[in-house]
Amino acid sequence: MLKGVDPVLTPEMLYALSSMGHGDEVVVADAHFPAEKIARRTTHGKLLRAEGGGSPRVVRAILSVLELDAYIEHPAERMMVDGEPDTLPQVQREAADELSRATGRTFTPVARGEFYERAKDAFCVVVTAETRGWGCFILTKGVLVTPDEPASAGGSTVGEWTP
């Protein structure tokens, strides 16, 4: 276990999340989602399991280490209840609370069929222990931008380690 890292984030999840680039997507899926089949088609190619929590809990954990994309309009999306874009099941309300707390953003609905197609092109799929329906989300990774700083008198620059 690592200090300061949410224990829901397994070593495999941390590896996949850190391997993602700007614009790559991670799917957080409930237990009903065809995660194994779809995960094989993703960039990562293997299903990631977060058995220690439901979808809102896993969304919170991922957002603790993943910057959302600030350059696109909808970096956080939810699987829409069929034909009901404004319906928010309890699981989605809970995940929306986690998203809002972490980023100040809201989820955008994506029709179920489109969600499945998008998931196939994602970087990775994380299946959760969530048994409530509609607990599926897509998060788009952004970049963590640090301000440029001039080199110090010692010659080191931002990001360099000096003993």
Could you walk me through the main structural features you see in this protein, from its secondary elements to its overall organization?
Strands 2-5-1-6-3-4 form a six-stranded mixed sheet. Residues 153-158 have low confidence and may be disordered. The chain is globular. It has helices spanning 11-19, 35-39, 55-63, 90-103, 112-120; strands spanning 25-29, 48-50, 76-79, 108-110, 124-128, 137-140. It contains five helices and six strands; from the N terminus they run αβαβαβαβαββ. Helix 4 (90-103) links the parallel strand 3 (76-79) and strand 4 (108-110). The protein has 163 residues and is α/β, with parallel strands linked by helices. Helix 3 (55-63) runs parallel beside helix 4. It has a single domain (20-138), classed as RbsD-like domain (RbsD-like fold). This is RbsD/FucU family protein. Keywords: Isomerase. InterPro entries: RbsD-like_sf, RbsD/FucU_mutarotase, RbsD_FucU. Pfam families: RbsD_FucU. It catalyses: beta-D-ribopyranose = beta-D-ribofuranose; alpha-L-fucose = beta-L-fucose.
Outline:
This protein is of the alpha/beta class and 163 residues long. It has 5 helices and 6 strands, in the order αβαβαβαβαββ.
Task: Give the secondary structure arrangement, pairings included.
Blueprint: H1 11-19, E1 25-29, H2 35-39, E2 48-50, H3 55-63, E3 76-79, H4 90-103, E4 108-110, H5 112-120, E5 124-128, E6 137-140
Parallel strand pairs: 1-5, 2-5, 3-4
Antiparallel strand pairs: 1-6, 3-6
Helix pairs in contact: 3-4
